[in-house]
Design a protein that fits this description.
By secondary structure, this protein is mainly beta. It has a single domain, classed as Beta Barrel (Porin). It is built from five helices and 16 strands.
């Protein structure tokens, strides 16, 4: 057992290196990833009851016994296309803006699992849980007096040490400690300083960071030889505030990670074909910086105050459906479809110029080749088609009225290698 814990200690050290190098995570359901782990991504993220590699701990910590002794390392190349259009504004003519000044991101991931006995297993996963980036070389707020480039950069990386216990044959429970590291930067939004409780801590303050923590618990059970059922609940991850941006986010820079929960099932349709289905809920409204509406400003609550404005996001329900087919002992192929309800209200597109997390559908495909020695090489490709949210009463009258329309599309390509230990 001492040897196993030494291996886990080494994985933790490697995880820290990945954390330092992590770049903004992609986001399909608001700013949460559509799937974590390259094999799960090929299934549109369906992994609560269908773990394929060690990154499945990010969906269900009870997956440890199904995963076994394993190590995975991989990365995604993420290419979002985001932007905005301002129409009918009294200050200046209609104009479109490209928010893709930074066009691609490399996102690493790593995981390690070890079964210690018939009843206990441990593991760790390090991954980007979510993030958002916009970079406007042509500042959409320049018509209102803003200067320089505009945009935000939010990065959320999770380190999730995990332990699982087998409560009965084929049934296990697990718990992860989610250690969260966040980075944030905003620039080019100084037009809001007159509406802030801390005007000098709202824009162009360089990158700030914060640590936080929460928990994730899960269950996974083999109900019949062909049917597996799983569930998870993730608490809100309470984080330290972005003090450099105490005049921007509600609660003097507070930015917790929302809670989420979900259920999943997988079924073996034939000896070669499996189907997996997940339903997930993300409680964005439980984080004031994300859920509060811009109208809070006109109720006497400036930016940065306890009830200050946010992005006005709604909670999201996500459905993920994936199919995995074993062509031969060495080859698997997979595909999936995912859908999420819309977090961005039509009335809230003005601030969401900075955070247009509006895509709802995505299509995924992937495959895995297994060598004679058991090494797995997996690849995935995900496409989220362009979604546009048109504004309705979105620009306040004191900014000249009119509407902001925001859009986003995404392409994600992943590659990973896994070893059975």
């Amino acid at each position: 057992m001492h040897k196993h814990f030494l291996g886990l200690k080494g994985a933790v050290a490697g995880s820290a290196l990945v954390l330092v190098s992590a770049l903004p995570a992609h986001a399909t359901f608001g700013y949460f990833e559509h799937g974590i782990g390259v094999q799960a991504e090929g299934l549109a993220g369906a992994s609560i009851a269908y773990p394929k590699d060690t990154l499945a701990l990010a969906s269900n910590p009870a997956s440890l016994f199904k995963i076994g002794n394993r190590f995975d390392v991989g990365a995604d190349l993420f290419a979002p296309d985001r932007g905005a259009e301002i129409k009918g504004n009294a200050v200046a003519p209609d104009q479109s803006y490209d928010g893709s000044g930074v066009s691609t991101f490399l996102i690493p991931q790593i995981g390690y699992t070890r079964v210690l006995s018939d009843d206990w297993a441990v593991g760790i996963a390090v991954y980007g849980n979510g993030g958002m980036n916009t970079s406007y070389d042509n500042n959409p707020f320049a018509r209102f007096g803003a200067t320089g480039k505009a945009g935000v950069n939010l990065e959320q990386a999770f380190i999730s040490p995990t332990v699982a216990y087998k409560i009965a044959e084929g049934h296990s429970i697990g718990v992860s400690l989610n250690i969260v590291y966040q980075l944030f930067k905003a620039e080019g939004v100084g037009i809001f300083t007159g509406f802030s409780s801390a005007p000098t801590k709202l824009s162009n303050r360089n990158t700030d960071h914060a640590w936080g923590a929460g928990v994730r618990v899960g269950y996974l059970g083999q109900w019949t030889p062909d049917l597996s059922v799983g569930a998870f609940w993730q608490s809100k991850s309470y984080s330290g505030a972005f003090k450099k941006y105490a005049g921007l986010f509600a609660g003097q820079g507070s930015f917790d990670v929302p809670s989420s929960y979900g259920i999943g099932a997988s079924y073996k349709l034939t000896d070669a074909l499996d189907v997996a289905l997940d339903v997930q809920r993300i409680d964005y409204s439980g984080v004031d910086a994300v859920g509060n509406r811009l109208s809070q400003l006109f109720l006497g609550n400036p930016f940065g105050s306890d009830a200050g404005p946010g992005f006005g996001w709604r909670d999201v329900t996500a459905v993920k459906l994936g199919f995995n087919y074993a062509i031969a002992p060495q080859w698997q192929v997979r595909a999936g479809w995912g859908w999420g309800s819309q977090p961005v209200r039509h009335s809230e597109t003005f601030l969401n110029t900075l955070a247009p997390g509006v895509v709802q559908h995505h299509l995924s495909a992937g495959g895995t080749w297994t060598s004679s020695g058991g090494t797995e090489v997996s690849a995935s490709l995900t496409y989220a088609p362009k979604t546009t949210i048109t504004g309705t009463g979105s620009i306040p009258p004191n900014f000249g009225g009119g509407e902001v329309n925001v859009h986003l599309s995404e392409v994600v390509a992943g590659l990973a290698v896994g070893w059975h230990l």
